Structure formats: C-alpha cells, structure tokens
Amino acid sequence: MTAAGAARTADLLDAARRRLVDAPRERLGELQEGRRFFGIPRAPRIVERGRAWHLGVLLLTEDSILATGEIVRSHAEVRRGFAAESQRRRAELAAAAHRGGVPEGETVHIGWHPLDPTGTETGGAVLVLRGDEPAVRWSAQGGYVPLARYLDERIDLLQNPPERA
Fold first, then answer.
1. Pairing of strands 107-110, 26-32
2. Which of 1, 40, 49, 142 has its CA 20 to 30 A from that of 101?
3. Cα–Cα distance between 141 and 155 in angstroms, integer?
4. Under 8 Å CB-to-CB from 76, ≥6 apart: which residues?
5. Is the distance from CB of 157 to CB of 138 less than 8 angstroms?
C-alpha cells in the first residue's frame, strides 16, 4: 500500500460524493432478532442504519465505503406455500423490513460491511490498490477494474437509468 494510492482512493470517493449529492439514496439496514416480550418471542425486524448511494458492489455513504450484501424489498407478511427455502427466506426478510418501518416496496440493504479505502484487504477483496491505482472487483469471478472507470459508469447509471429500469 502506498500513501499515493490511498490518497487517490480518497479523492475518487470524495469526487463521487460531490457528483451524487442530488442522486437518490437507499436504506441501509440491520437484521435484529426479535426480543422476548413477557416470555413470548417477537418476530425479527430490519432497522435502518443510514442511507447510501448504491453503486453496484459498492455502497457509498457520506463518510465511508461499504460492500453490498443482500438487497430486500419491503412487503407486508403474507402466508403462503413456497417451492424453495430460498423463497421463504426472501419473504421472511421482506416482512422483517416491513416490521422495521421500511415502507412497502422500498429497498433496504442488509449484510453490508465496511471496506478499507486504503486497499489493504486481501483474499478476494472488493476494493484494492494495484500499485497506486485503486481497483474494484465487480463480481466474484470477474477481474479488477480501475475504480475511477467503475465509479463513472455506476454514477452515470444512477443518474440516467435505462428506460423502464
């Protein structure tokens, strides 16, 4: 890691924040297991922990950079059968978001985690320094692309979404 690379990352993230000042942000949430009330367990809920700009595999806040986890759209709880356990889990998370106060139909990010903007993470990290140049891995199988190019593309998509997106 070099000081120049860390400074370049900070500059790119600050510039992105300035460009995104009027762009919509999405909720960050945390899944909380239900506490007991008079010995009766309460259902889990997702509580809001802030807001961030969603830029693909990155979530950018006013003061940090996060890796995207799961994205859930809030819906009221509905009892029905499911063909797959994964569908049941998604429905439970959607209901937990609704119980946590996320308006119906809005998205909330859970399972996100902070990234080290100095690029010193190892082992398949999302954000790294390659020499003095910050880079981002946009998929588990994908390679690294320069952070500057990635941010330009993602900010453009956020500010100018494709038709019917």
1. parallel
2. 40
3. 23
4. 95, 98, 104
5. no
Six token digits for residue 27: 């909720």
Single pTM value for the model: 0.86
Task: Take residue 6 and report the two structure tokens written for it.
Answer: 């860390």
Copy the structure tokens of residue 136: 């981002």
Residue 142 and residue 71: Cα distance in Å, rounded?
A: 20
Q: Report the alpha-carbon angle 143-25-160, nearest 5.
A: 70
Token digits for 134?
């910050």
Q: Are strands 133-137 and 144-146 parallel, antiparallel or unpaired?
A: antiparallel
What is the end-to-end Cα distance of the chain in Å, rounded? 39
CA 82 → CA 2, 89, 164, distances in Å?
51, 10, 29
Instruction: Identify any residues that bridge with 32 across adjacent strands, giving them in sequence order.
Output: 45
Tell me the pairing of strands 70-73 and 107-110: antiparallel
73-90: pLDDT as tens digits = 999 887 777 678 888 888
Q: Can you tell me the mean pLDDT for 12-30? A: 96
What SS3 class is residue 37? strand
